[in-house]
Amino acid sequence: MFYQKIVDYCNKNNLSIMAFEKKCGIGNGTVGRWKDDNSLPALTTIQKIADATSIPIEKWIKQEW
User: Fold this and answer.
1) Pair 33, 39: CB distance under 8 Å
2) What's the pTM?
3) Which of 10, 32, 40, 58 is most buried, judging by how many CB atoms fall within 10 Å of its CB?
4) What is the rounded CA–CA span in Å between residue 12 and residue 30?
5) How many angstroms separate the CA atoms of 22 and 62, rounded?
6) CA dihedral over 16, 21, 33, 50, signed as positive or negative
7) Max CA separation in the chain (angstroms)
8) What's the rounded Cα separation, in Å, for the pair 48 and 50?
């Protein structure tokens, strides 16, 4: 779920996953670990993403996109 939201955001904004990670200040390869929902981002990481994208944290953690 979270991984797909990032993919959708990247597609909409013409960004690679790597560019997204850099924009958000998270490590290279981090997003890929969320692909199978075996690993999920920490709240601090979601806050970094929310700050970098100007999308409220509530929207990132909500079930629907």
Assistant:
1) yes
2) 0.89
3) 10
4) 20
5) 23
6) negative
7) 26
8) 5
Q: State how far the Cα of 47 lies from the Cα of 49, in Å rounded to an integer.
A: 5
Write out the chain in H/E/C secondary structure. Answer: CHHHHHHHHHHHCCCCHHHHHHHHCCCCCCHHHHCCCCCCCCHHHHHHHHHHHCCCHHHHHCCCC
Cα separation, 29 vs 62, in Å, equals: 23
| Cβ 27 vs Cβ 62: under 8 Å | no
